[in-house]
Amino acid sequence: MFLVAIFSNHFTQKRLNRDRQRLGLTRMEPLKNAPPLLAFSSVALGGFRGLMANALWFRVTRLQDEGRFFEALSLADWITKLQPTFSSVWTFQSWNMTYNISKQFESPNERWRWIQSGIKLLRDEALNYNAQSSEIYRELAWIFQDKIGGTFDTQHAYYKGRWATDMRRILGDHPDLEAIEASTDPQVIAKRDILLKNYGLDITRMRLIQDNLGQYDWRLPETHAIYWAWAGLENASEGKLNFLRRVIWQSMSLAFERGRLIENKVDQKLDYAPNLELAPYTHAMFLKVRDEEEDTNYYSTIDRAHKEFLQNASYYFFLHHRLAESSEWFGELKSRFPDSLPKGISLEEFALNRFESNLVKANMNEARVIINGLIRQFLYFLAIGDEDQALGYRNMSEIAWKNYHKPAQRSTERLALPPYGKLLRNMLQRINQGEEGFSEGMIAALKTRVEISPETKIE
Fold it and tell me: Does some domain include residue 205?
């Protein structure tokens, strides 16, 4: 009986080994650049690799707590070789590169190199072994949304510029994704291959996102956060998928607030403004997520974000003098969240109150939106001859600029806005170039009413 059991086990073990190999549960390549003892042990121990990985993981966490990030990085790399399906080690390693090691360098180019390394590690390596792990997709999306798209890193503007330059080099400013997908031109095919090989971007998925979620600018990091969260929802079957849905509606909301890229060719930098055309898509996504979410404890988070979006939509459309649309969004806000507004408040009163409260807590992007909107309203009423109304908006915009810079922390170069005169000149240039919807007659009238000076001259 004992011999029969051994004989049967021989064939069963072979089948189990084949299944483990097929499912990626067995990893037999020797470690590269590891100390000789570790390289030998990883081969000799075979099935005990998991124990070795656990021991190394304890060491990694201790090194991390001690701030020894480069040593932790090396050990984490060995663990990914021992246990490539251990997704948490991949995300740890990427986070260490992107957030910890990058900050050890003063040069923005060196920081950007480590951020890129963190992205490539997840995109080009981790997903090969963890294509169904939501954790990997979420981490990729989060790097774009937070590290590149956020403002906490002092070099955030440099990262945004580098990424926009890379995407512009391949896609241009406003690509026709449908045409690129369908083209048989060798040059366009080469472009698709570069997107997939160098950036992990599948043109079909990009087009689907555009068809379903709106016209996003692929030069912006928020768009790529949406892309990787969308890819995760398509492929992942392990982990918490609601994290991926959260990244999508968060990034859509951020793109609505700052998703219109303005290239300042004079100063060789990028500016950002609301992409008001994304409002219907963002609103629809909030409704969809709220309807499909199974965790009722999550409702308050979605509702709070949805309410803030409706408040922003009402306010931003008002600032851009799209009053009919502003009134529609204000009505939606009152209908869905009646307790969020004082009883009987008008749209105009809401906008003024929002202006005062927003400015107190505004970050750099939000303050720019507020002040640019006020400047546009000033120039709009000036162009149509309503000088009293124009003067009111002019005063509000100047007060807003001064109040934003009152706190001491706003004086730093990272958070400071351009001088008020420069913001005014930039808006005048946009109007003169037909980018703000002013008619030719309004532009001509405006030129006769604006004092021409070195600070405000229309070029």
Answer: no
pLDDT tens column, 42-72: 555 555 555 555 555 555 566 556 666 566 5
Q: Give me the mean pLDDT over the 271-298 stretch.
A: 85
Q: Which residue has the tokens 């990694």?
A: 60
Backbone φ and ψ for 51, nearest 5 degrees, come out as -65, -40
Total domain count for the chain? 1
Assess if residue 252 is contained within a domain: no
55 in a domain, yes or no? Answer: yes
Whether residue 68 is contained in a domain is answered as yes
Q: What is the pLDDT of residues 70-94, one digit of tens each?
A: 665 565 565 566 667 778 888 888 8
pTM of the model: 0.72
**Domain span holding position 38:** 26-83
